[in-house]
Structure formats: structure tokens, C-alpha cells
Amino acid sequence: MKLFISFALPAATVLASAVPAAAETYLARCQMGECVYYDQTEHRIVGEGSTAVPGDVVEVTLRSAASESESASAANLVWGEPSEVRFFCSKARPAYQQADGTFVAWDLTEWAGATTMVTAMYVHACHPGVEIASGDPFGAALALGYEATPGGTYPSLQALVSP
Predict the structure, then answer these.
(1) Average pLDDT over the chain, rounded to whole?
(2) Closest CA to 117 of 136, 89, 141
(3) How much is the pLDDT for 6?
(4) What is the pTM (predicted TM-score) of this model?
């Protein structure tokens, strides 16, 4: 199954690099009494940007689980089915791919409740092993050298990486 949260992805068409990974479990967001956790494995580079907009398309396999606790044990969570999710890892135009194939770019440095979870997913997918202090993925992005970038929706990877 290739579906979870609000976007799904088509199967990878190009497999340039695969890095098998041990499961990385992290708390993505707590809001209104529900905490969402993700278990990330399978970090693969499946595409690349351009000279004008450099970066890599990274596909990760994620499973999600919910809890009322910010300190739930991964072993005690009920995990959903794994799904593949793609991100365009780029300091120039960070983005994620939606179910319809479009890419959504957003500013990783500006706090917005609606983007907290996808920002945490992006940081973990594009920078495996990076710790996000106090559940602040925006601060982690700043510490990684990201600067403010404009948001937008692009109909394809080609449109996303065009100047």
C-alpha cells in the first residue's frame, strides 16, 4: 500500500541509490490530545534536481501510529501498514510529493502548525539520524542551514526543479 497521512506516492521508477536502514522511530507531532509517531526505514534516492534547483528525490518507507502520550514506547504502539513517501531534499526548494504526483514546496524555517508533521518527516527523510530538540523541526531545519524559501505547488518534478 502506498498511502498514509494526506498523500500517497507512485512506485519508484528510478532507483539510483538504496540505503537499507534500521527503523528510526520518532514523534512527529502532538496536537489536541493525540501524538503521531512514525517509523522510518528504507531511505532511497530515486531522482535528482537540476543545476538551477539542486537536490535529490528521496523515498522513505513510513508506518504511523497514534498515542495519547508524548513518551509512548515504540514497542507498545499499534503500527499501520508501511507506505512510501517522497521528498525533494533541497535547501533551495524543499518539497514533498502528493498522491496526484504534484510537489508542494514550503518554508522549513517558519513555524506553522499545519506543516509541523511534514517538516519533521522531511528532516528525518533528508537528514537521517538528526535529532529534533523539543519537537521543533523548524529549529532543526535552521540548524541544518536552511533559509526561508517560498512555497508553492508544482505539477511535476520537472516544474519543481526549473528556475
Answers:
(1) 84
(2) 136
(3) 38
(4) 0.80
